[in-house]
Amino acid sequence: MNSPLGDSPNVPRFHRTMSPGQRLGLATLAAVSLLVLDLRFGALDVVRDAISVVLRPVQEAAHWPVKLVVDGSIYFATLAEVQAENARLRRIEMEDRLRAATLAALEAENTELRRLLGMARRFELRRIGVEVLYDAPDPFSRRIVVDRGANAGVRPGLAVVDAEGLVGQVTRTQPLVSEVTLITQRDHAIPVMVQRNGVRGVVYGLGDGYLELRHLLVEADVRTDDVLVTSGLDGVFPPGIPVAQVVSVDAGGVFLRIVCRPTSFGERRRHLLVVERIPPKGEPGEGS
Amino acid sequence: MHESSRTTRVLQPPRLRFILSTLALAFFWDLIPKGGGGFWPEMTMAVLTFWALRDPQRVGVGAAFTLGVMLDVGRGAALGQEALAFVWVVYLAQRRAARILWFGAWGQALLLLPLWSLALALQAAVRLVAGGDWPGWGYFGSAVTLVLLWPILSHGLLWPQWRAARAGGSASLS
């Protein structure tokens, strides 16, 4: 009396030809090869994209429960909280408007001066407002997923900022969502300079929420509370975005050990901005 | 508790549709971004373990590998990470199936705990070697959550077969 449902023809054929041990060996080999190709060489984006095409509807459906919880918690935020936030935002808006007015004048002046000096025009910025959907479910990395993707012009490599500074970098895009690696991710590198004196270096994520400014000789002039901003030397990030503030400087050996804290609130903000640096087109004077 | 192990022999095989839909449901659960670090049960791994024990003919290393790779893509993890872990859990569970199924649900869960812990440790080892962040001890808590869930899960997954047996299926097998 075997298999009253008549399922036995459905048993895969290789099942009878390979022993369980052999199948385990084969699968292990396949998995390890995938891991090496992916982690060491980053060569599997094609495979990933192909599988995501099938998975995307399921993934989107799986986001609904989270969306419900998040939206629900916002809906039930108390009126007092909303009023307080509203007041705070109005104040900030007023300050910003004032600053924007001055900035417009300065920008015009800057363009004019650059034109006079025959210098290339500064880059332009394109901004895409995004909303944080959730933390990426992978516990081994610090990434968030935002609600704009390749369809909205988001590309891997772009900088992601909040009002306080750099949050991270877009590392993977899908048509409707993209994945942002936070600057605190271990060994995530960003070229920076000290805002006070222009000393340049590279800041690395430490994986514990802090960052480290590396490869600076002990002579370098860096102090506690110095603000590090993007240097723009990578050609990707716009220069001048605040990244981190120095927490401690330790002159141990040849190099300084400088630990910094990110200036942005990043992971806890709901609304962020993806910024793209667009190289100036045409001659210096064209845009005026 | 021992009822489950004693009645196994007279239960009809589970319907393929039921196996597939429980795996799909577990997969869906695992794709929900939950945050909060650790302690959330890895349902795909649990359901795979269950079917690997109960229906090794149809759910084995191949299914584990396929679901693992799909889950890796869906979660944005390293490709092959979960596949590697699932493959080993399923293989070891099948090798020890006779011994594990001899126990009641709590006993089974305790015997499965080392397998699930191994799966989590394998993934952590792979990612840490490749320069990933330490996920915190809460990450390993999900194996404990699975132990606590196992009695409910295994009863729930066996229920359709029990019901069929009680509805008269067992008479034809006697």
From TrEMBL, chain A:
Signal sequence, renumbered to the chain: none
The source's domain of life comes to Bacteria
Pfam families according to UniProt: MreC
Question: Residues in domain Rod shape-determining protein MreC beta-barrel core?
Answer: 132-276
Which PANTHER family does its entry note?
CELL SHAPE-DETERMINING PROTEIN MREC
| Functional description taken from the UniProt entry | Involved in formation and maintenance of cell shape.
Q: What is this protein called?
A: Cell shape-determining protein MreC
Q: What is the lineage of its organism?
A: Bacteria, Pseudomonadati, Pseudomonadota, Hydrogenophilia, Hydrogenophilales
From TrEMBL, chain B:
Q: Which keywords does this Swiss-Prot/TrEMBL entry list? A: Cell membrane, Cell shape, Membrane, Transmembrane, Transmembrane helix
**What's this protein's name?**
Rod shape-determining protein MreD
Instruction: Kindly list the places in or outside the cell where this protein is found, as annotated in its UniProt entry.
Output: Cell membrane
The record's similarity note reads:
Belongs to the MreD family.
Q: Where are the transmembrane segments?
A: 100-125, 137-158
Q: Source species, please?
A: Tepidiphilus baoligensis
Q: Which domain of life is it from?
A: Bacteria
Q: Give one Pfam family, short name only.
A: MreD
Question: Which InterPro entries does its entry note?
Answer: Cell_shape_determining_MreD (IPR007227), MreD_proteobac (IPR026034)
Q: How does it sit in the membrane?
A: Multi-pass membrane protein
